[in-house]
Amino acid sequence: MNSLLAHEPLIRLAVFAGILALMAGLEAWLPRRQRSAGRWLRWPSNLGVVVLDSLVVRLVFPTAAVGLALALEGRGVGLLPWLGVPQPLAILLAVVLLDLAIYLQHVMFHAVPALWRLHRMHHADLDFDVTTGLRFHPVEILLSMVIKLMVVVALGAPAVAVLVFEVLLNATAIFNHANLRLPERLDRLLRLVLVTPDMHRVHHSVVPRETNSNFGFNLAVWDRIFGTYRAQPAAGHEAMTIGIEQFRDPRELRLDRMLTQPLREDDRAYPLGRRERA
Length: 278
Description:
oxidoreductase, lipid metabolism
């Protein structure tokens, strides 16, 4: 197991590249929607921000979540060791609870206006495909890492559970952002457990009440438990508009414009609860 954890960066990179290539191929073969913006307009910036995010995280956090979990193992730190949970069950519980934490974090980034300013870069993409799942502001990535590290410490999550969770999260985030047409019956069955592309696409609708739904990235159960599940977009998947209202100019797809979006054009419609209160 230690040898597996020692190769954590290679494992994550291999899974990331493999799933990205697979989903990009599948969505080209079985597209769900016609593209509103070409790959050459969007992909350089979306992939460029991934490289920037990775560099920033490595500079600020030389020890990632798996390394921190490995350093804490055997020291009795965290809820799971304190409760004496057996290792196999601790791994399962840690993966599930980490996924719950990501769901709650996602809701928080929609509910707090200052955090929404960071997160809306992810939503400002004018199309929805595998690269949309990689498009996050570097400051949001840093805040997310801080939250993840805190949860890992609070749980006392086993290092292998953290590795499994991070691999799953990367894979499912790419999968559920794919412009992929799944058979309707398969989609209904899959979304009982996992977030599917059709389920998550609703979250990228330009309509605020749809933007503020379907927050899950991996397990589909949290949206049903917390009442944020929406089965389909009102306009249908082919006709729905992707993005947010104030960043419709194609120039906003450039990397420099993406990075400065949090500093521009305050928006009072999208943060969770704002429109309802108004």
